[in-house]
Every structure is written in C-alpha cells, then in structure tokens.
Amino acid sequence: MFHPDQTRQHAVFERLRQGILAGTLPAGARLPPTRALATELGVARQTVVLAYERLGAEGYVRARTGSGTFVAADLPDAAPSPAPPPQTAAQALSARGARLAAIPASAAARDAGLGLLFAGGLPAPDLFPAAVWARCAARVMQPLAGELASYPPPQGLRILREEIAAHLAATRGLVADPDSIVVTAGTQQALRTAADLLLDEGDSVWVEDPGYIAGRGALLAAGAVPVPVPSGTEGMDVGAGIRLAPRARLALVAPSHATPLGGALPIGQRLALLDWAGRANAWVLEDDCDSEFRWEGRPLPPLATLDTAGRVIYCGTFSKTLAPALRLGFAVVPPPLVSPFVRLRTLSDRGSDAFTQATLAEFMRQGLLAPHIRRMRTEYAKRRAAVLAAMAQHVTRAEAVAVPGGLHMVARLPDGSDEAASVQACRAAGLSVAPLRAYFSGVPRISGLVMGFATTPVSMVADCARRMEGALRGVVG
C-alpha cells in the first residue's frame, strides 16, 4: 500500500491531502476517527494522529473539540489543474536554452554498447594504475575526513596546485605560480569559464578549422561568433585569422597538436599569434590536452612559455594521462584573471571533488605520474604502429594518416565518398570511429574517419582493420 520511499505517516497525509484538493473530501466534511482510519489502513493509531496534526498545521483541516476533525473551508492550495507535460524541447526550453541544447559537444554520440575499438582521443582503461591509485586514496582518506563537512576551495587544493606547477616545470618547461593555477573539471570547464569571463554576446573568436568540437561549443554557449581559421599540417594559419577577423576578442588554439589533423604551430606562427593578441587586445586560449603523447620529433614547449604580456590562458587535463572520469584539469591564468576565474568556479559548482584532488596530489607527490606516462607512451606507440601496419595491409578503401601527436589518427576516404554512410557502416561493425566532417565549422575540405588506437590492444588490431575493410566495401568504391 505504501511507496517504499515514503514513511507511513507521510503516505496517510498525502492520501488525505490529495482527496481534499481533488474534492473527494469536500470542505466541511468530517474525517474518520483516528482509531477507525488506522484500523482500515492497517497502521498504528499514532501514525494517523500525526498525519491529522500535520494536515491541521498546514491548514487543510480544523479540529473541533468533542466533535472531530473537519476539512477546512478555506484551503491553502487550489486543486491542481491537470496539464500534460511538455512533449518536445520547444515546449519546455527558453529560446536561450534551445540554442544551448543544439550545440554539438562531440563528433558522434557515445554508444555505450559499441565499445572502444578504434575510439579516438581516449586513454586505455586497461592501463589505468588502479591498485596504486587505490593505495593513494586510502592514504589521504583519514587526513581528509575532517574536511568533508566543508566545500572544497574553488581554486583547488593547494597541495594539488603545487604538484601541478612542479609537473609543468619538469615536463613542459612552463614555470607557473601555484597561485595562478585553478583546478577545473577537465579542459572543457576551463575553456567555458574563460569564455564566460572574457567574451560578450556576439564577440568574434578564432577557432581552428577543423578543430576541437567541444571547445568550439564552449565558445558558442558563451554567445561568441566562431570564425573558422584554416588549420593544416602546421596548425592554425595565423595570417588567415588576421585577414578574416583582425579585431577578434579571443583565439582558441592547440599549438602543440591541433585536433584532429595534428598540426603543430611553428615558432614564427606562434610569435605572430602573440603579436596579434597584444595589438588586438585579445586573449589566447591554449589547449594542451594531450601534448604528453608526441610520436614524431621532440615534444613542443607550450605557447605560454613565450607569453610575456599575460595574454595566454594555458589549459591542461588529466583526462588523457589518467582517466576522463576523474574530471580533473587545470588552467594557468594570468594574475589579473585569477580572482574572477575562481569566483565563477564558485558560482558554477563550488569546486572539484576534494577527495579525488587529494588522491591525485598524493599520486603525483609519490612520483608516480611521470613513470605512468612513460609506460603509456611506450604501449601507445606499439598500438599506434600496429594500427598503421594493419591499415596498410588490410584496408584498401581508406588511407591512414599518421598524425604526429595525440591519441587518434585520420583514415582519409577517397574524394566523393559518402562519409556518413562510411561511419555508419564502421560503427555497425563495432568500430567507434567518428566523421571528420564534424570537426569542420566551415566547409569540409577533405573526407575521412577519425579513429583512435590507444583503446585497442595490439592483439585485436588486425581483426579491427579487416572489419573496417568489410564495412567500407559496401559504401566506398
């Protein structure tokens, strides 16, 4: 009789209240004696007494000494008028909400049943250091227990910011003051926070074309107008950006490894970008999400190492080196922006989970992150080489392009191919590929499939390549 989530007293109260509001128990009607109703409902008399007292306290009934309990004539609520729930987003959302809900966040919806074979841009779940991570979590749990009744600091735990600063100095050559580091829920939150702080509705922003879909979405969500700037084997064409939108307010770039073609910005272009930002009073959002994985040449230093005018906001993440589910990233913010950045973080979510932050800080403090990245880099290099070899051997209807960095590559399709049908066929074969077209905000210049290698064990690579060939046979001539 009673819903498992309701107490008996609340269930009796709600049954009577709904009867009063619906008119089943009209104004002035006498309620049954508490003992009689308790017997009928199979509950203790005290349960009904407490329900009656609550109805009286909220104005639904009046008790008359010696006469009983009666439904009040002047009810505190009007009977709810039945109305159908919204059937479409257009009925439920504001105009702004509808605009936000229409912004794409990825090239293709993640299908939980599809698996991770050839999934692009994701780290290998089988390489996550689960046992060591658990020991670090156990070590920080007791010292942190006293802080669980408080909100975490919105800028991030000091111990983690200090470890991030040390890691950046050792691995990226970037000297960062811990007081200028803000811990975020991945790169995505850092990009959106910066966009909300620095952009007004209608401001122009440079975006790489093709480029990072969710980054472009963060700018669109902030009301900006993205200006597609061609990006190729040498990253964003800064000269084209200046010609297209010389007074843009911001540029979103991945100087060390553009998504998805992998271009790296040469030194001349980097200096030109910083020079433009200074002259235009603009900002540069540097996305450095997977720079740890460089397959050709030496790792490139961040653009932020060249910034002497405080125009670059450097964004990094632990989603690629550890796991996306941790939702931990960071931004190195110019000093004048730190306080507004932290304030907006406070307003959005009151800070990242302190327990996960403390566990990561302990993991880094013990010197475990750097060797973990080295192990991943070694294994990923094997998987990448295996995918390239298997594609060359088994796939004739697409050409794998060896992107020089990151956790994905591009399989080029012949001109005129039906890219959407190719993606659908590959996904039907269990391969989690994405359309290259989705990464373009302007007119696509090439067709292809964006695919990964990190999540695919070497033992499964040849089979995956044969599956791709079979899938493309029916759609690519």
SSE order: HHHEEHHHHEHEHEEHEHEEEHHHEEHEEH
- Derived from helix and strand composition plus strand pairing, the structural class reads alpha/beta
Task: Give average pLDDT, whole number.
Answer: 90
Share of helix, binned:
40-55%
Structure summary:
By secondary structure, this protein is an alpha/beta fold. The chain is built from 16 helices and 14 strands. The longest helix has 26 residues, at 369-394.
Q: What would your notes on this structure say?
A:
The chain has 477 residues and is an alpha/beta fold. It folds into 3 domains: 8-71, Winged helix-like DNA-binding domain superfamily/Winged helix DNA-binding domain (Arc Repressor Mutant, subunit A), CATH 1.10.10.10; 130-367, Type I PLP-dependent aspartate aminotransferase-like (Major domain) (Aspartate Aminotransferase, domain 2), CATH 3.40.640.10; 371-473, Aspartate Aminotransferase, domain 1, CATH 3.90.1150. 42% of the residues lie in helices and 13% in strands. The protein is built from 16 helices and 14 strands. It has helices at 8-22, 34-41, 45-57, 89-92, 95-101, 130-144, 158-171, 186-198, 213-221, 238-244, 267-280, 335-349, 354-365, 369-394, 419-428, 458-473; strands at residues 61-64, 68-71, 181-184, 204-209, 225-232, 235-236, 250-253, 283-287, 312-317, 329-332, 399-401, 408-412, 434-435, 448-452. It has an 8-stranded mixed beta sheet, sandwiched between helices. A 4-stranded antiparallel beta sheet has the order 11-12-14-13, with helices on one face. Strands 1-2 form a two-stranded antiparallel sheet. Helix 1 packs across helix 3 (45-57) and helix 2 (34-41) packs across helix 3 (45-57). The chain is elongated.
